[in-house]
Design brief:
Two copies of one chain form a homodimer. Chain A is an alpha/beta fold. Chain A contains seven helices and 16 strands. Chain A has a nine-stranded mixed beta sheet with strand order 3-2-4-5-1-10-11-15-16, sandwiched between helices. In chain A, a hairpin with a 4-residue loop joins strand 15 and strand 16. The mean pLDDT of chain A is 95. Strand 14 of chain A pairs antiparallel with strand 14 of chain B. Chains A, B: Belongs to the peptidase S51 family. Chains A, B: This is Cyanophycinase.
Chain lengths: 272, 272
């Protein structure tokens, strides 16, 4: 569950990005994130834990600096003991925006899960600090996080692997590189397990800017596929054997390109 | 438009198959087709025109004979003049079942389109002769036939190429190898052009047995994905530039595994 918001404050934006966002020519998504965080006055802290490359944190610091941010930090959290470090927590608390890079989402959940850093991220977001994460950093936003699964269109029993994520928004399950890696089958499998979940499939260079009312706007060059199984009339999930194709009647799907909006709480898509 | 049925007769089954149907061990789809056509007493005529392999027709004759059919024919129609041959039309008229093989659906439309053979297929089907076609032979069932397009999930303007097909059933657009070749994007593009169309995405070794009431039952090891855009609230198709991701609000999708049914006329899915 998301941390409760404190009276008088609004939750910060939660911005899952589908990976491979434009970083140089016209970094629309990152620039819009910076703008929300205060533009030049923004303080952006990068968490590169998902990546195993040494320079991922400094690379993103440089990108944010090129966009105009004066103050950036990167927290070199590589193991669970790092995520207990009171100094890192203090740095994090100075942020107006937190950026979590791509890599392996299981590194995020296994290294950050249950630590002061994870707790602080959740609390800061509840207090108005904006959170953006790309690829693995997007997946971890989910309470029920996809860690793997089968590609293609048709869902199967056992066709998706879930693990507990950070749960900044608990009713959505986020998938990334969605069109590029043909991930409809695994996202459909996930939302078929329990239709309270809304599936959010993010293409590369595409982000959902989710505001404090749980309404998101699509930003970027691709699309976001929304899967809503709340009106489903029948699912064979409970009876199917592992690997069997499923029968699912009445899945609602929205394909949302740049500028389109979706109200997560009311399960309603808009174009204006 | 399908040929009108004659009083007292029912249209034969129309059976699009998603390609790569099982032919040896347990040829469920082909055996069910044979059963409908009269079992041992069936007279099956194979039309291998889509294929450019010399033995496609004789190969299917052998498969049907192994299933128990005593009388099989193959019509070696390789150019338009062949499709005018009165002898071939006479052979066709003896059939209780017509089987159109895979290959290139543009060979079917360019060679058969507007010929006595095409006319006879439509008339015979209207009079109760069953039609089965795999891959290209499934595509040609559509009035608006998919001949190519982009793969993936997210539809685009220009993301599908259509050509006139045989139109045995004029409200559906059939796609094949659907899960295997990730063809959701192109089928979604097709049904977005005009929502009167229902998209039928057939996995390999999977068939829609469409009866005279336009209700089909799924047979085979994969699934059929049905796309219904009739309740769509918004489509950006008319404004989008070629290659742009589309916004489509409120697409209805059904995933139907073996045994599930769909009523094309009433746009309703069932499991019993």
């Amino acid at each position: 569950m998301p941390s409760p918001t404190i009276d008088g404050t609004q939750r910060g934006y939660v911005i899952p990005i589908g990976g491979a966002e434009e970083k140089l020519d016209n970094p629309e998504i990152l620039a819009k994130f910076v703008e929300l965080c205060g533009g030049k006055e923004a303080v952006i802290t990068v968490i590169p834990t998902a990546s195993q490359l040494d320079d991922t944190g400094s690379r993103y610091q440089k990108i944010f600096e090129e966009i105009g941010v004066k103050k950036t930090y990167s927290l070199p959290i590589n193991e669970r003991s790092d995520a207990q470090d009171p100094g890192y927590v203090k740095t994090l608390e100075k942020s107006t925006g937190i950026f979590v890079t791509g890599g392996n989402q299981l590194r995020l959940s296994t290294i950050l899960g249950g630590t002061p850093i994870a707790k602080t991220i959740r609390q800061l977001n509840a207090q108005g600090v904006h959170y953006a994460g790309t690829s693995a950093g997007a997946a971890i936003v989910s309470q029920h996080m996809i860690t793997g699964g089968s590609t293609g269109i048709v869902p199967t029993e056992g066709g998706v692997n879930l693990a507990p994520g950070m749960g900044l928004i608990n009713t959505i399950v986020v998938d990334q590189h969605f069109n590029e890696r043909n991930r409809l089958a695994r996202l459909l499998s996930a939302v078929s397990y329990n239709p309270f979940l809304i599936g959010i499939g993010l293409d590369e260079d595409t982000a959902a800017f989710i505001d404090h009312d749980n309404v998101f706007t699509v930003v970027g060059s691709g699309a976001i596929t929304v899967l809503d199984t709340s009106d489903i009339e029948y699912s064979s999930m409970a009876e199917a054997r592992t690997g069997d194709a499923l029968t699912l009647l009445n899945v609602k799907m929205h394909i949302l390109a740049s500028g389109a909006r979706y109200d997560i709480s009311n399960r309603k898509a808009y174009v204006s």
